[in-house]
Amino acid sequence: MNLSFFIASRYFRSKKKRNFINILSRIAMIGVAVGTMALIIVLSVFNGLEDLIRGLYASFDAPLKIEVVQGKSFEVSPAFLDSLEEVDGVESITEVIEDNALLKYGEDQMVVTMKGVTAAFLDEERFSKGYFAGEMTLGSEKKPKAILGRGVSFMLGMNPSSEFENLRMYYPEAPRAGTIDPSKMYNSGMLGYAGAFSVEKKFDDSYVVVPLSFAKELMDYGNKRTALEIKVDSGHSINQVKERLKKLLGARFTVKDTDEQHAGLIRAIKIEKLFVFITLTFILAVASFNIFFSLSMLAIEKKKDISVMLAMGATTKLIRSIYIKQGAIIAFSGAIVGLVLGFLICWLQDRFGLVSLGVASSVVESYPVKMIWTDFLWTSLSLIVITFFAAYRPASIAAKVNTVEHL
User: Fold this and answer.
1) What is the pLDDT of residues 69-81, one digit of tens each?
2) pTM of the full structure
3) Which residue, of 181, 185, 309, 316, has the greatest Cβ tally within 10 A?
4) With left for phi above 0 and alpha for psi between -120 and 50, is residue 68 left, alpha or beta?
5) How far apart are CA 41 and CA 36, in angstroms?
6) CB 87 within 8 A of CB 245
7) DSSP helix/strand/coil, 110
């Protein structure tokens, strides 16, 4: 066994009664354990929330979305769509026309995001991870129906059982010169009510899904589309299919995956997680100050022992190594306990949902957690750095003991 480690471990396991230094070392170890456990738990919760948000958005958005780089819409043709369908890994294509419109029901009205889609939209189980009430249909070309976000449905005071009230959608039309009739300045269309969904607040409070034929006629779009949504075959990588589509489409179009479609939100979550990690690391550093104090007091108490070792031929490097390893033993003992406890608590939360969100939710009832090995790695590395700085100063003081004075 390494001599410095042997002596450090003897100091750590010392069983002298009423030894305040040993008590302080145990307190330091407990502080490190609690800080490490808290760091692992909080990071795992952030990972779980990030995964939950990704899943909710993915249940409404397609794995890949094609949009034009410049402008709002682009022309599509059967040949163009066929070329996309021939790309290896593309399972289906949903044509999309999306824009703001005015929706009216009875005396209530609000501006919504109208999303016109082809039938493939409903075949892709877009509302599988949320709440849905009503019929999963967009009606027919002659009798179109709309699927509303639950927030939109609530704001309009929808009564699903009423057969006498229909939805009416209004969209502004480019005015013609000399037109003074207000009715010529907008297009409108009637819709039946099919159902309501709840996926995520952003969608729930603004989106109304309608048939593509209805949106095309209302907006007078013809062959123009605002986006194409691609469903990727389960046996293919999304990134690989994305690269193939980019190569086919060229610089005129963008192909975005689900993270890129909501890049701002994902970036915000990652930044928040980073700042939480930094904050809790500082708390862990404060908890590690006890290591500094316990090693400083140990260096004072063991001056005579240090003098004897120096007189017997020990080097200052050995003395410094003893105290650094003493700090490492305290910190790593606490870290191992903290990592194990953090893992167990996260596992229990994931398995049994011990802590509830505290609000009624149809999507998730308890705090989601997801453990990632890199969180354990970065926590361990930050603890190594903190321990080194906490132990280095007391170790340097111990190595400068005057041998003659303390013998």
Assistant:
1) 999 999 999 999 9
2) 0.80
3) 309
4) beta
5) 9
6) yes
7) strand
